[in-house]
## 1
Amino acid sequence: MTGRKRLTPEESRSSALEAARALLIEAGPQAVTLKAVSARIGRTHANLLHHFGSAAGLQKALAEHLARTVCETIIEAVHASRAGLGSPREVVDLAFDAFDREGAGALASWMLLTGNEDALNPIIGTIHDLVDEIAPEEAGHVDQDGGEPRQVHRETLSLVLLAMGDALIGAALAKSLGLPREAARVRAAEQLAASLARYQRAG
């Protein structure tokens, strides 16, 4: 009889996060529990407790995992847009899909509602790193009156807030206002295109 493959700690953690991500997409944030994840990957509850400490720890790690994965993709898309190989809309769709289809918006909201006050920290931290990667010339500057215009930081703030809000109430709000479902994405793409144009003129 062949025994179960022994995974390294990193492989075990990665497998658990991928299972948690699948549960998040399939059934929503309330389904991301240590019990459900351990059952899906054939590991023990104690094994996941060792890696994540608690359900809240698992959810926090999942939020960070989602943010890191998406931000790496967005970095590539932004660089492609600057080189004329991609479009601002592609960048916007990546961000919006992360919060909507990938479940990051619902996960963050659920964590906050269930008392995990630092739920957004891993997402915010990863996005901060993303901006510093895209615009290293802005890193470390403080935007004050008469100071450095942190344009990429401003655009990232706008994009993330739009994506988060759209994931949570976008469909209902667009319907109520008589607008197409993708109206927020179109608006975000227009703003990002204008920002990229300014960046290229300044470069």
## 2
Amino acid sequence: MATPAIGQPAPDFTLPGLTLTGEEATRSEFTLSAERGHPVVLAFYPGDNTPVCTKQMCSYAAGIEVFRDLGALVWGISPQGLDSHEAFARSYSLSFPLLADTDRKAVKQYGISLPGLGLRRSVFLVDAEGVLRWKQVGLIGVTYSDVETIAKQLAQF
């Protein structure tokens, strides 16, 4: 399945996730279409507590104010369950939601499934109307879009 086209509605999904606020982890459902009114950064990553994923998620946590200043939410999405996400969030003080796509439903909807490895590291930017405005899909997944690159794209819509 191909990735969704720029300018098209972003595929909607609902996934369980958690948000760490201080010491409290709040688990809830996250639905993309419920976030209309502001942009959402969908950061798909292969796995909790792996070197590149940890570096990527920590960089987004360090730059969270940049995203907030642009009115955007950041969601980290990977195939691990909520217990793994909670341990990961606590280990690195990740304060944005981590969503559990354990059956890879969203991964398939976004066309980033990678047989044997799970998924291609990818970032999709969804605008306030739910339209896909930018995407970066990794071939192997050893690099990722940095905060500055994502912020530059967000500032355009």
## 3
Amino acid sequence: MTDFEAWAEARVAGLLRFAYLVTGSQHAAEDAVQAALTRACEKWTRVSRADDPDTYVRRMVVNEHVSSWRRSGRREVAVAEVRDTAVDATAGVDTSDAVWRMCSALPRQQRAAVVLRFYEDLEYAEIAALLDCSETTVRSHVHRALTSLRATLTSQEER
């Protein structure tokens, strides 16, 4: 087994979880990871020499998602079911699902920053490098996302 195959086999599950949190869709996550791993395999000599190949490939996943989003021109979010009447969205939903639903409503940059900060436990400087923006911008994304999530929670509690 080559170095790349062993590395990819050990990390594919984690990459899929990460990609799902970034993309919000299992299908999009699988596509992003497949494209990133294909590119990583082609450039494995370069990738393996990086300070942190895991971070390098996670960045490739994020880039692939952003590129596919730009290519498609689609700005819509798929929903499982369209309902005619208002329904309490929190009824019968476990905590993790409720958190994911709130996070999926965030703009993609804010969602990516929150996922990288709180799920991947990365520092702001690392997130800035992954998202190719300044550390101040990352802090702003996280702050705005948390403000939005607090407002959503407050409005749900008031219902």
## 4
Amino acid sequence: MKFHLTVDNWAAQKTDARAVRFDVFVIEQKIPVELEWDDMDEHCLHAVAYNEAGYAIGTGRLLPDGHIGRMAVRAAGRGQGVGAAILQALMAQARQRGDGEVVLNAQAQAEAFYGRYGFSRDGEEYYEAGIAHICMRHVFA
């Protein structure tokens, strides 16, 4: 699958990022809608991946404190390198602005995925919205 990424502020990415997150988190994973939205989106950089038809298939955000979050890829884009491209783009943005590390709260089932990109578990498993999560960290060399 061919796709391209954009990285921009919330004003530019809001419509497509929200649509992907709603489909993946609220509809597919049944996370309560009130837990999905917070007041941090407007302060973050957002990556959105689009397929060849211009349809948004994935998203993620980089918070001002170096956290990467809200990583989501629609089912049709999974296993195609979309999540990896989003993660690497957000990591590059963090490195470029001078962050010494990036941290994320991964769903436990995604630990191996993040591990492939240099993230290590930091702490014990915990539950958020009824889903097992772990904190993971990547320190830039």
